[in-house]
């Protein structure tokens, strides 16, 4: 009983103090150095006292989809805040150049690789988002870097993608859908500064999530917050997923504030 009571009192104290720090932090016009240090400190205390760790991986079966939809920053946020998405990674694919980089892309395209739970969301559902959320449109000729592209991972995805494109073409006639459908043969993760780009704008929060280069590409909580903090999904949906992310009370309060503040903002560059 004493242990339980101590934990309850500790939790109440931490939550009260973190709320005060958060209010002080958000009242500033920008992230002051002292405010960031206080936020970092209280989150670290919460993580230790409440035994909370960021959830970077889910132990569940998944399938993978790979799409090119224009600038990959917006696409990553769009899918990140979609239920059933477990991981997102931006990168380069579809070309022949070995080891492409953003400044030396060769014949590759900016793409998003998506790991998804097929028990929650289907490949067909992912395609619905794909067709309706291109940065430059489906019928506008565009350079290869930003072209519309579906890279299928198996014959089932190929069949579904081809039928889906035919259906989309009927809706958009007489315009011509420019999307190419090809097998996925390669994928090169983009540089760290491209991964979870919108989330990385919250540097103080990222410091408390223990990211490294690998986790920027693969983190579950990073995937989710990169979407929700950019305004995708909305506050009510965020509330249904936030407890799966391994966030402390202060992190939750911080994220809730920005999810609500940014809800409905535009996705793309």
Number of helices: 10
What amount of the residues lies in strands?
A: 5-15%
The outline comes out as globular
Uncertain regions spanning at least 5 consecutive residues:
1-18
The end-to-end span amounts to 54 Å
Strand order of the largest sheet: 5-4-1-3-2-6
Radius of gyration equals 20 Å
Number of strands: 6
Q: Residue-averaged pLDDT, rounded?
A: 88
Helix coverage percent: 40-55%
- SSE order, one letter for each helix or strand: HHEHEEHEHEEHHHHH
Largest sheet: 6 strands, mixed
Give an overview of the whole structure:
It is built from ten helices and six strands, in the order H-H-E-H-E-E-H-E-H-E-E-H-H-H-H-H. The chain is an alpha+beta fold and 269 residues long. The chain has a six-stranded mixed sheet. Helix 1 runs parallel beside helix 10, helix 3 packs across helix 8 and helix 4 packs parallel to helix 5. It is globular, with a radius of gyration of 20 Å. The N terminus is likely disordered.
Give a short summary of the structure.
The chain has 269 residues and is an alpha+beta fold. It is 45% helix and 13% strand. It has a 6-stranded mixed sheet.
Topology:
Layout: H1 2-26, H2 33-49, E1 63-69, H3 72-80, E2 85-93, E3 109-116, H4 123-132, E4 148-152, H5 155-172, E5 180-183, E6 188-189, H6 203-208, H7 213-218, H8 220-228, H9 235-241, H10 249-262
Parallel strand pairs: 4-5
Antiparallel strand pairs: 1-3, 1-4, 2-3, 2-6
Helix pairs in contact: 1-2, 1-10, 3-8, 4-5
């Amino acid at each position: 009983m004493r242990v339980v009571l101590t934990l309850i009192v500790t939790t109440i104290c931490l939550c009260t103090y973190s709320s005060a720090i958060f209010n002080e932090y958000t009242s500033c016009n920008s992230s002051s150095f002292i405010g960031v240090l206080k936020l970092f400190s209280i989150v670290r205390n919460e993580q230790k006292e409440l035994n909370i760790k960021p959830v970077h991986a889910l132990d569940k079966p998944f399938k993978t989809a790979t799409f090119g939809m224009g600038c990959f920053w917006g696409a990553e946020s769009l899918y990140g805040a979609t239920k059933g998405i477990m991981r997102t990674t931006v990168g380069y694919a579809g070309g022949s150049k070995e080891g492409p980089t953003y400044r030396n892309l060769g014949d590759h395209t900016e793409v998003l690789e998506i790991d998804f739970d097929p028990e929650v969301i289907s490949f067909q559902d992912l395609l619905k988002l794909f067709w309706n959320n291109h940065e430059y449109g489906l019928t506008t000729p565009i350079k290869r870097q930003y072209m519309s592209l579906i890279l299928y991972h198996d014959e089932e995805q190929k069949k579904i993608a081809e039928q889906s494109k035919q259906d989309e073409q009927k809706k958009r006639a007489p315009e011509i859908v420019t999307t190419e459908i090809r097998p996925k043969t390669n994928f090169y993760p983009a540089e760290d500064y491209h991964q979870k780009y919108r989330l990385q704008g919250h540097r103080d929060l990222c410091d408390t999530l223990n990211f490294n280069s690998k986790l920027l590409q693969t983190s579950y909580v990073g995937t989710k917050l990169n979407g929700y903090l950019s305004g995708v999904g909305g506050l009510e949906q965020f509330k249904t997923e936030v407890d799966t992310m391994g966030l402390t009370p202060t992190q939750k309060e911080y994220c809730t504030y920005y999810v609500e503040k940014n809800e409905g903002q535009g996705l793309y560059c």
